[in-house]
Amino acid sequence: MNDEFLLQYDMLPDGVPVLCAVSGGSDSIYLLCRLLERGVRVTAAHFNHRLRGAEADRDEEFVRGFCAQRGVACIIGSGDTAAYAAAKGLGIEDAARRLRYAFLHEAAASIHAARIATAHTADDQLETMLLNLARGSGLRGLCGIPPRNGIVVRPILTVPRSEIVRWLEAHGISHVEDSSNAEACYARNRLRHQALPALQSVNAAAAAHAASAGLLLREDEQYLQDTARAFLSEQPEPDVIVCAALMEQPFPIASRAVRLACGTSLSLAQVRSVLALCKGKKNGRISLPGTQAVLENGLLRFGAPAVCPIEPREVLPGVSFELPQAGLRLSCRLLAQNEEIHECFNIFYFQSDAICGKVICKSRSPGDEIRLAGHGCTKSLKKLFQQARIPPTARAHIPVLYDDRGPIAVAGFGTAERVAAADAGSPILCVCFSPIPGSAGQQPR
Q: Which of 72, 317, 364, 379 ranks highest by number of CB atoms within 10 Å?
């Protein structure tokens, strides 16, 4: 094991308990022996996936005996991987990995282990890099297996399998072979038995060089990620990106900023779609896995809250009620004789005899239009909100008053010409919108 590598990633701090994942194969037996050689406080952990019948039970018994001979405590676990894969709709390899790591974390917690050591080698690293390359991964995928992920560490990630085999043979240490490693149905096996020998015929140190390249690429990736995080931290509001600033960033930074802000896994095509949205001048949105990207007035947000429209409520004199979505309280009364009318965008006066039927307060409906008093033209509510630069996600929170013919007032905008009160000489209905104290809802303009 490379001491500098171990120190760089703080893999084996002095005196801390370590849980070592031991399958019984050459790599994990080598790792366990080298940890013991270093005087590490190690406990072994073996997980039986119940996939290979008697052979899997053989591996379990081998690990038990190997540990017993060396006085190493061993925690054994098992799970029906095939049944779990079927229940969760997963591939066998993915299901096995999930069950195995869940077991390892539980076992580590039970003995208060500060690290979980797994036996990934330089050959595993090369295989992973090639798999990711074939699948179209970018720089992050080409970094391969991380040396450390939380408490999970890979102390022999820079050690080629050929070196492991030589060491075991030199020390006369036995291990077991997993017959599934020879099955061509697994993509990793095909790479292991076909691609790796071809690469090693070009350069015998191919695996070691791949491990070294992976570490260098990981440092580059970390720098780009840190730069993208710094860019996001400079935005004027949390969880909001100024599109103009995003477009000024080089693609390696902009793409990572989008992925970090989104918080979910995005393909390259999805990232490019989000950046294309930001280049446009119109508001819009893109559906993404588990969320959406929303562009509003030059600002990019992810995971916009679900719109909760204002439910229809009848407006009657002497009645008041709150509109939590808008952060407003509505109150209604009949104007007293000779009471003055004061023009205002949140107090509305209606000629009672001009109102058709009931007065209802609710969110706008698609296609609604209004001819506001004093404006001399009819506009759709959508156009009014667009011109006022009200984000689409906030428009359902603008209270609109209706009679049986349609909209008669829009909070923050004004009263319809056909019902607007001219004076207080005849019955006049007054509807007032006032802020709810402490509310952060949409307020009238």
A: 364
